[in-house]
Every structure is written in structure tokens, then in C-alpha cells.
Amino acid sequence: MSYDELLRLQPDDPFWNDGLFTNGNEPWAIDINTQRGIRFLASLKRSREEHRRIGWEARRAMRWAIVQRNQLLKTLRLIDGLQVLEGGVLQVVE
Fold first, then answer.
1. Percentage of the chain surpassing pLDDT 90?
2. Average pLDDT of 41-69?
3. Would you report the helix, strand and coil content of the chain in percent, each value rounded to 5?
4. 91: left (phi over 0), alpha (psi -120 to 50) or beta
5. What is the pLDDT of residues 62-88, one digit of tens each?
6. Distance between CA atoms of residues 90 and 81, nearest Å
7. Do the strands 90-92 and 82-84 form a parallel or antiparallel pair, or are they unpaired?
8. 24 CB contacts (<8 Å, ≥6 apart)?
9. What pLDDT does residue 84 have?
10. What single DSSP character describes residue 24?
11. Of 27, 30, 5, which Cα lies nearest the Cα of 15?
């Protein structure tokens, strides 16, 4: 079975039955609404985790952008402080 096929299996597929099933009358085993609720709760947890990961990624991107900006400003200040003399010689202007 391929990974894609595994992902397409429904929760009630016999594949998931690994032997003794002693809780056959529990709501999570027979009630469609309870099963939906379990799936929605799992989806909510995944969404929260994804939201947290996006936050981490945004913070990393902001740190990178700030470092790049600071390096660019430093370079521009350095360039602004240079003066070209005759013969193409650069001199720092204080």
C-alpha cells in the first residue's frame, strides 16, 4: 500500500482494526457525530500547531530582514562617507 493510499483510508476501514475491539459500543466507536467531533478536534489541534509554526517562521523572517536592513544601512553609510579622488583613489571623509 502506498502512502497516498494510506492517507485516503477512512477511519472505519478494516485496515485500522488491529485485533480485539472491546469498546464496540462506546460513542467514539459507533456514533457518527462523536467521530466527526474527534476528527474536528484533531483538525483544530493541527491548525493551532500550523499557526504556531507560521508565527515562528514570521519571526525568523523578520529577524533576517532586520539584519539585512542593518547591513545595507551600514554599507550605504560607508559608501556615503567615501570620496573619490583623482586617479580613482577612494578616501574616507570624516
1. 37
2. 97
3. 70, 5, 25
4. beta
5. 999 999 999 999 988 888 877 666 666
6. 10
7. antiparallel
8. 30
9. 65
10. T
11. 5
